[in-house]
Amino acid sequence: MLLKEYRICMPLTVEEYRIGQLYMISKHSHEQSDRGEGVEVVQNEPFDDPAHGQGQFTEKRVYLNSKLPSWARAVVPNIFYVTEKAWNYYPYTITEYTCSFLPKFSIHIETKYEDNKGSNDNIFSESENKDQEREVCFVDIAYDEIPERYYKESEDLRYFKSEKTSRGMLQEGWRDTQEPIMCSYKLVTVKFEVWGLQTRVEQFVHKVVRDVLLLGHRQAFAWVDEWIDMTMDEVREYERTIQEATNEKIGIFPPSISISEMPLSSCTLSGPASAPTTPVCTDAPEFLSVPKDRARKKSAPETLTLPDAATQNQSGVPQGSMLVPVPNQNHSPWPSSDSDQAELGGE
């Protein structure tokens, strides 16, 4: 298990971002979806939790097959997806990602929002992982390098200025002088409990998560003039319309999303108490087994190099299996939820 805490500041207030978060997630998911690929919204319902109060539960399927490297496409089914579940009790959210083909793999994101510049070192003092050692990473939405495939001039916050709010263009050191300012605090736990691959894969996934969070928060502010005047009812209607259009775009029929007026019983959709647990089975799949005399590498490469499909087939790797859900260099692995964007979805 590898735990990191990300802190992402934006020139917004927490109350403003309640609308901006929902708008950004819906629009981004629609932009990243194509026929047979993208984000299918399975469920989007109000949800009442005894501990956190009223919120919104969403379940999505992120279809990734064509976004996988060629070696991975050769060994996974044609219909491959990651399941995203999110519980949004704004300004507190929980997001989980799992994959049925890799039961030992999961991502758990706990998010809190505050009106400050990322100065609260005890914001996760009540988290079950509060005593776990973790690295704190500040993400600068204006000056941190973004992968070239994500770059758009209109979303370059060094030069963007909002017409409706007059905020921007963000200069070096903007977090020290900007008003208003808020921070997304994200506690991200990545698990890939396969001996010999765990360290490299968990570090690689964190690199991908960081890129997704950076992109999502950049877009939230770059699109501020599109959503700043919306009410909650208006953004929920936008969310409903875009979700249905996205489902139709990727070929999910009928394109029907239910956003109920009445909250569901807490016993229907129980929220997670902590990061998802590893299944009872502790034996690694045969195709993921690593010889005992193989030396363990401690650093994560920028890309994971594995045998090509032909070599794998000769070696007896079963068709329909997957080694690790890592994207190629031209695509994001999965969009965010209400907590990341990805926030992995709102975070």
From TrEMBL:
<feature type="region of interest" description="Disordered">
    <location>
        <begin position="270"/>
        <end position="347"/>
    </location>
</feature>
<dbReference type="InterPro" id="IPR001666">
    <property type="entry name" value="PI_transfer"/>
</dbReference>
<feature type="compositionally biased region" description="Polar residues">
    <location>
        <begin position="270"/>
        <end position="280"/>
    </location>
</feature>
<keyword id="KW-0446">Lipid-binding</keyword>
<dbReference type="GO" id="GO:0008526">
    <property type="term" value="F:phosphatidylinositol transfer activity"/>
</dbReference>
<protein>
    <recommendedName>
        <fullName>Cytoplasmic phosphatidylinositol transfer protein 1</fullName>
    </recommendedName>
</protein>
<dbReference type="InterPro" id="IPR023393">
    <property type="entry name" value="START-like_dom_sf"/>
</dbReference>
<keyword id="KW-0813">Transport</keyword>
<dbReference type="GO" id="GO:0005737">
    <property type="term" value="C:cytoplasm"/>
</dbReference>
<feature type="compositionally biased region" description="Polar residues">
    <location>
        <begin position="327"/>
        <end position="339"/>
    </location>
</feature>
<dbReference type="InterPro" id="IPR055261">
    <property type="entry name" value="PI_transfer_N"/>
</dbReference>
<dbReference type="GO" id="GO:0005634">
    <property type="term" value="C:nucleus"/>
</dbReference>
<comment type="function">
    <text>Catalyzes the transfer of phosphatidylinositol (PI) and phosphatidic acid (PA) between membranes. Binds PA derived from the phospholipase D signaling pathway and among the cellular PA species, preferably binds to the C16:0/16:1 and C16:1/18:1 PA species.</text>
</comment>
<comment type="similarity">
    <text>Belongs to the PtdIns transfer protein family. PI transfer class IIB subfamily.</text>
</comment>
<keyword id="KW-0445">Lipid transport</keyword>
<dbReference type="GO" id="GO:0035091">
    <property type="term" value="F:phosphatidylinositol binding"/>
</dbReference>
<feature type="domain" description="Phosphatidylinositol transfer protein N-terminal">
    <location>
        <begin position="1"/>
        <end position="244"/>
    </location>
</feature>
<dbReference type="Pfam" id="PF02121">
    <property type="entry name" value="IP_trans"/>
</dbReference>
